[in-house]
Design a protein that fits this description.
The protein has 71 residues and is mainly β. It has 1 helix and 5 strands. A hairpin with a 2-residue loop joins β1 and β2 (33-44). It starts with 10 loop residues before the first helix and ends with a strand.
C-alpha cells in the first residue's frame, strides 16, 4: 500500500487528506511557479485550495501534473 508519499489522482483523495501537506506540480505556472508545497485547505468544484505560508492558492485539478503527500 502507498506510504506517506502517496500519489493523489482523484478529487476525493484531496478531500480525504484535507489539512495534510502535499506537493503539487502543475502543467502551467500558477503564481509564477509550477511546484507548490502546502496544506490542502479545501476542495471546491474540482479546484484544490492549497494553503502556502499565509495565502491560499487555487489549483484546478486538470492543471495538476503530479501530486504527492509529503512525508
Amino acid at each position: 500500500s502507498p506510504g506517506l508519499d502517496r500519489p493523489l489522482y482523484e478529487i476525493w483523495q484531496y478531500e480525504q487528506f484535507k489539512n495534510h501537506e502535499v506537493l503539487i506540480k502543475s502543467y502551467q505556472a500558477i503564481n509564477k511557479k509550477r511546484s507548490h508545497k502546502g496544506l490542502i485547505h479545501q476542495v471546491v468544484d474540482n479546484v484544490v485550495q492549497l494553503k502556502v505560508d499565509d495565502e491560499i492558492i487555487e489549483i484546478p485539478l486538470d492543471s495538476v501534473n503530479k501530486a504527492n503527500l509529503v512525508s
